[in-house]
Amino acid sequence: SGSMSLENFSPAWYLLENHQGASFEDLKLGLANMRLSSRSRSEGPTAFVKANIGAILDCLDSLNTMYDKFTQDDIQRGCIDSYAVSLFQAKSCADGLFQEVLGRKDQADQTRNALNVLQRFKFLFYLPLNMKRNIEKGDYSVVINDYIKARSLFAKKDVKVFQKVYKEVESMVESFRDMLRKKLMKLPNTLHEQKKIIGYLTSLEIRGDAAWECLTNQERWLHGLLVQCKTSHLEVSADPGSQKNSATLSVNYGRGSRGSSALGEPGFKFRTPQKVLFVEELTDIMTCNFPDFWKLGQAYISGQIGSREEVKPGKVPPGNKFKEMVSSLVKYFSNLIRAAFLPKSLATIPADTRKEYGAWSDSQDVSGAWLPHCVRYVRSCASSLCSQDLPGDCHDMIQELAFDMRTNCLKLLLNQAINDVRCLDSKETWMVELDDEFGGTTQLPALFENIVNEAIQHLHEVVVQNRSGESEIFSQRPVQKEATGLCQQLLEAFAPCLEHLALTNLDTGDQAAATLRPPAADKRTSYIEESTPEDTIPPKHKRLIIMLSNCNHTRSQLLPRLVENLNKHGYVEMNKVLQTCQATYKALDRKLFEAYIEEKSNPIVGVMEPHMYRGHFDWRHCKQPTDVRNYVKEVIMGLIEVHAEVFSISPAFVTPVMTRIVGAVSEEMSRLIQCVPELGTNGTIQAKLELMCLRDTVQLYQNKQSETSLREALEYLPDISEENEKKVEELMTTFRSQMKFQLMCFTKDKAAA
């Protein structure tokens, strides 16, 4: 009993009845107060006796005197017995009178005692109902605390009613354990929720290790998601006509899933490649779920959650098992990506094992337009996983996957840029934009520069630019070497395009005439007059000088700029590439220049001899000269035409082109004069007049070879009289006056020089 006045008083029972909610410190304070009260009670009677000792002794003496007197008077002691009999009779009478009242009093006392028990132990009696309500509300911590409290108070009590209620509580707790276990095994779930449930199960002393069971279940679930993702996308790729799309394939893979591209939905003209949807979904699975799995495992290994038992000898520690699980997941994920995008990297794996990662058909290869998108997803996933402080082998595996994807993207984009440059000839419009500084060029050099710069910028954003923890893309020598070779191919790919446009018979439009339209805006622009579709392609000699100008502009302006941009973005050995590419374009420049010289000089030189002897001209019996003959004027007009054509495209080429053609004309003129067997007086005057007029006209573009040729021709002529010399001078003056307008281009160039 908890009552201090009864013989069966129990201190523990007293505390349970009166102080069940008190803490240990409060109980210690209560004990000190009780000791103080007991000391006060014991000291009170002693003080009273000390203060009234005389009166107390007088009372005792009086009682002893009265007792002695009473025994002397009642010799036979009968009086006391009669008193006892009278008292018993009075008691029997009283019992008869008040038996019914006393019975009701006893019943009331029993009821009151029962109510007192219910009131005192209402926590236990209301516990099943309270547990049910709290479970429905989700207040699991309250349920667990109440259960622990009830177990400590009533688990070992022998009172039947207590045992009956406690068994019902245990039954509810067992159901509660099963519910929490099922909730723990249901995925996906948040890390915080999993830790809470594991803590609840640990507090409820569940059989087994709830944390380890959760980890193994989550590992199986994650692996199953990866397998399901691979299988579903391979099925769709094998059946392109299927009505399935990314939305129907998608399951609840995790929290915050980014989902697939909208282009994969029906109704869009262009469907997202299946590999792209696959890598989006696969990386989402790992990014959204793997970090929680890793953090849960770390919490378990560090002892923050679960109830780890001592490892028995011969068994693998849970920490090692967990690392094996993590390594297996990372390896499977990495190989799934490699099977889709880098199948050659799995060549060393046995064929049976390789089948587990799926076999994608070549028709499902991702183009350069989509591969950077895939690389971004893989790099983002790798960055998320590596930020979890994974074991060394897993970290290296993920980083190697990201590096290989970046390297593959680098090769693909550079090769695609090379192909784009090689196809630029189909985009030539033959519209020449004139620039005072660099001469005239078409849009092709600008398109070439744009393709290269866009490829460089795209690669910088997707591949070259490093994220935290990633390796430098050019840190490995094989990658450096391959990137350098591809960059050289990219810069050299424009040369065959120029050569094709200049030297190949593109169409029947070689006979089309090229005219200049007035300048527009702040740039002068030369257009090919569009009369019919066939006339849009200029003749070969026009194409040669245009492509020669494009080639010179590319070699002198574009290549240094592009190499500087490549150096700025970290590409190595670009100066050697610049030298090699400039040699390539220089060789093309010489080839186009020689072709143009041949194209323009042959018509001029080829007609000199026929026109010289037109009308059966005879140097021995010709008439007295009155003017320079037409064939010389035709040669000069041909030179002026070449000058105008070159100057309209690229003024920088006027001097070298004119010098070469003048040299060919001078050599042919010298040959023709020296082949004349005999010259009469008039013939000598005519020949000297024509040679000197030609020499004075092209003097600006003469070199040693052309000067020597004309001098040899003049020396071959017989001497003439002074009068004839004056005649030659007069005719030369007349020629200059008549040809003043035609000869202005030469004088302007001379003044400019």
Automatic annotation (TrEMBL):
User: Mind listing the UniProt keywords for this protein, alphabetically?
Assistant: Exocytosis, Protein transport, Transport
What GO biological process terms are annotated to this protein in UniProt? exocytosis; Golgi to plasma membrane transport; protein transport
Signal peptide range in chain numbering: none
Exocyst complex component EXOC2/Sec5 N-terminal domain mapped to chain residues: 4-746
InterPro entries named in the record: EXOC2/Sec5, EXOC2/Sec5_N_dom
Task: Provide GO CC annotations from the record.
Answer: exocyst
Show the coiled coil region(s).
Answer: none
Q: How does it assemble?
A: Component of the exocyst complex.
Q: What does this protein do?
A: Component of the exocyst complex involved in the docking of exocytic vesicles with fusion sites on the plasma membrane.
Stated family = Belongs to the SEC5 family.
Q: This chain belongs to which protein, by name?
A: Exocyst complex component 2
